[in-house]
Specification:
CATH superfamily: Glutaconate Coenzyme A-transferase
Distance between the termini: 14 Å
Helix content: 10-25%
CATH topology: Glutaconate Coenzyme A-transferase
CATH architecture: 3-Layer(aba) Sandwich
Number of helices: 4
Strand content: 15-25%
CATH class: Alpha Beta
Number of strands: 13
Strand order of the largest sheet: 4-3-2-1-5-8-10-11-12-13
Structural class: alpha/beta
Order of helices and strands: HEEEEHEEEHEEEEEHE
Largest sheet: 10 strands, mixed
């Protein structure tokens, strides 16, 4: 069956390595901090000026002064630091972040990402997404495979305004784990109980299938 948002985040947490500095985007990516292995050291960075984020707080333990870029309350780990946006984006633009995990509305088979604007919907601006996709060497996208109408969000070409071009390395959806290659989406893993045929039907972009595709292990 298709993964929940928490399960998507749990699978992405396996991509986080010891010693990484990781930026978590708004939405599903913020859940990743809840699932990172306890035996590794990871520094989570939020673009509003926090380094050393921990898991979400338990109910009743929230501090309204501690928030992430999505205005959700967070916890901090020992040694955490706080700073202004200028320093935060110096970290990002200076390529001091090892992994960036973002949400997206669309991803193309060439690794283009659209995640900031739907035409006709008022938004305040692109925010930090442009800096993140322009500066990061390793970008993983967390998203649903299809929209509410059942239409694919993994496309041959994005239809929404782009945030970045050719920058996404891997996509984890509620159906599959896919790597971006020069020839399209390489299917690496499928969600437990989800068939390869279901993934094929839900993917508009070119899907590369080599051999038997294993189920995800969390």
């Amino acid at each position: 069956m298709a993964l929940s948002k928490e399960q998507i985040a749990k699978r992405i947490a396996k991509e986080v390595k010891d010693g990484y500095y990781v930026n978590l985007g708004i939405g599903i990516p913020t859940l990743v901090a809840n699932f990172v292995r306890e035996d590794i050291n990871v520094e989570f960075q939020s673009e509003n000026g926090v380094l050393g984020m921990g898991p979400f707080p338990f109910e009743g333990e929230e501090d309204p002064d501690l928030i992430n870029a999505g205005k959700q309350t967070i916890t901090t780990l020992p040694g955490a630091s706080f700073f202004d946006s200028a320093m935060s984006f110096s970290m990002i633009r200076g390529q001091h972040v090892d992994l960036t995990i973002l949400g997206a509305m669309e991803v193309s088979e060439l690794g283009d990402i659209a995640n900031w604007k739907i035409p006709g919907v008022m938004v305040k601006g692109m925010g930090g997404a442009m800096d993140l996709v322009a500066s990061a060497d390793n970008i993983i996208v967390a998203m649903m495979h299809t929209n509410k109408a059942g239409e694919s969000k993994l496309l041959k070409k994005c239809t929404l305004p782009l945030t970045g071009v050719g920058c996404v390395k891997k996509v984890v959806t509620n159906l599959a784990v896919l790597e971006i290659t020069k020839n399209g989406f390489q299917l690496l893993e499928r969600a437990p109980g989800v068939s390869v045929e279901e993934i094929v039907d839900a993917t508009e972009g070119n899907l590369i299938i080599n051999g038997k595709i294993p189920e995800m292990v969390f």
